[in-house]
């Protein structure tokens, strides 16, 4: 679905993509691609919030706050609080006001969730052509979370376990 403020191109969906094809046809050309079968055998594919709380609920995380306010939506400011993953997820499950204004972002799995690393194997596409910068990272938010329009300084290999990512930039920003 294209919105009037968005420039939208169809992103190709491919399967059985080789490392070289990804590198040559997409990475070097800065073209996005959806690889439909890259993580089918990952244990992480079966994660649920209750299961994660059982495994890593007592782990400490840093949660962004006031993410439902205009200053956050335009990329100006937010708060950060220290919490346990279980308490953050309790809010998500309730869908309460704090959940609607919170976002678990850029949580280094090596630091915040080392118990889960075996569930997220290194994608073959990154073994010879990628760089990790302390990744992988986890992001968890309530459905409908709005992330301000931004450009990451590095390339990304995003894996969606559940949900969807929708991006729309204001008219005055280039993608």
What would you note in describing this structure?
It is built from 7 helices and 6 strands. Strand 1 (13-14), helix 1 and strand 2 (34-35) form a beta-alpha-beta unit. Helix 2 (49-56) packs antiparallel against helix 4 (85-94). 13% of the residues are buried. The longest helix is centred in the middle third of the chain and has 10 residues, at 85-94. The chain has helices at 19-27, 49-56, 70-73, 85-94, 97-100, 109-112, 124-127, and strands at residues 13-14, 34-35, 60-65, 79-84, 102-108, 137-140. The strands form 2 sheets. It has a 4-stranded antiparallel β-sheet with strand order 4-3-5-6. A two-stranded parallel sheet has the order 1-2. The chain is of the alpha+beta class and 175 residues long.
General shape? globular
Question: Could you describe the largest sheet, including whether it forms a barrel?
Answer: 4 strands, antiparallel
- Residue stretches low in confidence (pLDDT < 50, at least 5 long) are 171-175
Number of distinct helices: 7
Q: In percent, how much strand structure appears in the residues?
A: 15-25%
- Compute the average pLDDT: 86
Relative helix content: 10-25%
Give a count of the beta strands, DSSP E runs of length 2 or more: 6
Strand line-up of the largest beta sheet: 4-3-5-6
Helical/strand content category: alpha+beta
Distance between the termini: 17 Å
Write down the secondary-structure element order: EHEHEHEHHEHHE
The radius of gyration computed from the alpha-carbon positions, rounded to a whole number of angstroms, is 17 Å
Task: Please describe the structure with a list of short key phrases separated by commas or semicolons.
175 residues; alpha+beta; two-stranded parallel ribbon; 7 helices; globular
């Amino acid at each position: 679905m294209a919105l009037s403020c968005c420039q939208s191109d169809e992103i190709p969906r491919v399967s059985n993509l080789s490392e070289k094809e990804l590198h040559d046809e997409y990475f070097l050309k800065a073209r996005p691609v959806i690889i439909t079968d890259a993580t089918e055998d990952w244990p992480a594919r079966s994660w649920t919030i209750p299961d994660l709380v059982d495994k890593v609920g007592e782990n400490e995380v840093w949660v962004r706050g006031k993410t439902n306010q205009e200053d956050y939506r335009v990329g100006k400011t937010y708060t950060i609080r220290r919490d346990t993953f279980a308490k953050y997820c309790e809010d998500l499950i309730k869908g309460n006001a704090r959940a609607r204004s919170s976002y678990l972002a850029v949580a280094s799995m090596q630091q915040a969730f080392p118990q889960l690393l075996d569930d997220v194997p290194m994608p073959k596409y990154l073994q010879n052509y990628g760089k990790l910068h302390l990744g992988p990272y986890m992001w968890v938010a309530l459905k409908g979370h709005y992330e301000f329009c931004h450009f990451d300084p590095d390339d990304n290999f995003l894996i969606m376990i559940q949900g969807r990512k929708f991006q729309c930039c204001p008219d005055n920003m280039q993608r």
